[in-house]
Amino acid sequence: DRISEALLGLDASDQTTVDQVMIDLDGTDNKDELGANAILGVSMAVARAAAGATDQSLYRYLGGDDAATLPVPMLNVLNGGEHADNSVDIQEFMVVPGGFDSFSEALRAGVEIYHTLKKAISSRSMSTALGDEGGFAPDLSSNREALELLMEATETAGYIPGDQIGFALDVAASEMISGDNYELAGESRSLSSSEMVDYLAELTGDFPMVSIEDGLGEADWAGWKELTDRLSSSIQLVGDDLFVTNRAILQRGVDEGVANSILIKVNQIGSLSETLQTMDLAETSGYTTVVSHRSGETEDSFIAHLAVATNAGQIKTGAPARGERTAKYNQLIRIEEELGNRGVYGGWDALRG
């Protein structure tokens, strides 16, 4: 009731004003009074209403005539860490089909690798149970074994690692911290910040790695700087826990030369206009953007529209399984069909900024 009373009579097409009224009504730095999900839900609903009132698709309303880039999907096909009940420490292992001419071709490759991976896991008499985001969660012996399994599945499916398909990790390193070290519990290893950088550099050298998310803990800015200096010229280094879609924190990263990409989660910052402001800063600062779902998701496809509207070039929305994940992929296919010849696929360039 408080939100509805405050917004009554405002112009739905003035998204910035609508969002600012709610932010001011909340009155806290972290939206603790009304809650980020309440503010965001209204923010998104207002955008949808304005798009409907002008008889436009949501992506077209948000992005205008320039909205034409279909994002590269980062498909989370193997789960570990906090997203699975197994001994694999890294939270997400993703296939990135960047070497294709269209989104639909790239998605098809990802789906085929996903199903080939299931067969490879079954052939080892391992469980094909799914993690939170639809990826498989077999009890593998190490992170390296997971990457080797991805290599096998990619090649067996008929695709070329490093050319058509790259790999990406969400290390979720903040979850590994114990004292001053990073604990790889599944491998019985304890690594310093510098040793963690060495470990990630080793994996990058041994596999067709194109992106690493949250490779160091969110408070380990010195480690992040070392990681950035070491690997940013060759791969994408994404800050999720590091930046939490926050413009001010991203500005610190830009100023200190930390990371070269930001994960965008609309409910981290809590309004559409603040999300767009953060994405604008990333673009002007030469950082790539990856529009992302959350582990606990719904079947709403807003982020598919957001990725195209902003020409983000990348989207992370889980495995090609479970309705709350496939809803985004299916919406992107529909957008690709609607765009026709005007649509372009982000491809590898999307990861290079």
Main sheet specs = 9 strands, mixed
In CATH terms, what is the fold-level topology of the largest domain? TIM Barrel
Q: What gyration radius follows from the Cα positions, in whole Å? A: 20 Å
CATH architectural type of the largest domain: Alpha-Beta Barrel
Backbone structural class: alpha/beta
Low-confidence stretches: none
Strand order of the largest sheet: 2-13-12-11-10-9-5-4-3
| β-strand number | 14
Question: In the CATH hierarchy, what is the superfamily of the largest domain?
Answer: Enolase-like C-terminal domain
SSE series: HHHHEEEEHHEEEEHEHEHEHHEHEHE
Portion in beta strands = 5-15%
The whole-number mean of residue pLDDT values reads: 96
Concise structural overview:
The chain is α/β, with parallel strands linked by helices. It is 44% helix and 14% strand. The protein has two domains: 2-55, 2-Layer Sandwich (Enolase-like, domain 1); 64-351, Enolase-like C-terminal domain (TIM Barrel).
Please explain how this structure is put together.
- It is a single chain.
- The chain has 353 residues and is an alpha/beta fold.
- It folds into two domains: 54 residues, Enolase-like, N-terminal domain (Enolase-like, domain 1), CATH 3.30.390; 288 residues, Enolase-like C-terminal domain (TIM Barrel, Alpha-Beta Barrel).
- It is built from 13 helices and 14 strands.
- The strands form three sheets. A nine-stranded mixed sheet has the order 2-13-12-11-10-9-5-4-3. Strands 6-7-8 form a three-stranded antiparallel sheet. Strands 1-14 form a two-stranded parallel sheet.
- Helix 7 runs parallel beside helix 8 and helix 12 packs parallel to helix 13.
- The radius of gyration is 20 Å and the shape is globular.
- It starts with a helix and ends in an 8-residue tail after the last strand.
- The mean pLDDT is 96.
